[in-house]
Amino acid sequence: MERLFQHAAITDGITVRVSVTFMPEQSNVARQKWFWIYHIRIENRRTDTVQLKSRHWRITDSSGLVNIVDGVGVVGETPILASGDTHDYVSGCPLSTPHGSMEGHFTFEREDGSPLEATIPFFPLAAPATIG
């Protein structure tokens, strides 16, 4: 089944697509815990090979609390993408409010060793009104 990606950003030949899904079975409104999973697809439309080295996330909840997350690779991987390659992964985000957002960037290394910062598009995190 092909996933419907709701958000996308293109930076210098790197496309980052995002699909987000609220997970009511992993959320607990009584304990002020809401949880989403997000599926990321990275597409290399450049003519050279790049390697994903790090991620930078800005996660904001509806009370205005901002959490910055920096780390090596994605879900324990630093994938190498040749021209035309894609890389998919799934991760999750808990919040203490029913709404929020995520955005950020991935840093890649080009074949010549220089960095390339690719935008992760802004995407909302929103629990259905009946949930929270």
Automatic annotation (TrEMBL):
GO aspect biological process, one term: error-free translesion synthesis
Lineage per the UniProt record: Bacteria, Pseudomonadati, Pseudomonadota, Alphaproteobacteria, Sphingomonadales
Pfam families in UniProt: DUF525 (PF04379)
Protein name: Co2+/Mg2+ efflux protein ApaG
InterPro entries hit by this protein: ApaG_domain, ApaG_sf
Superkingdom of origin: Bacteria
ApaG domain span: 8-132
Xref: NCBIfam families: PRK05461.1
PANTHER family: F-BOX ONLY PROTEIN 3, POLYMERASE DELTA-INTERACTING PROTEIN 2
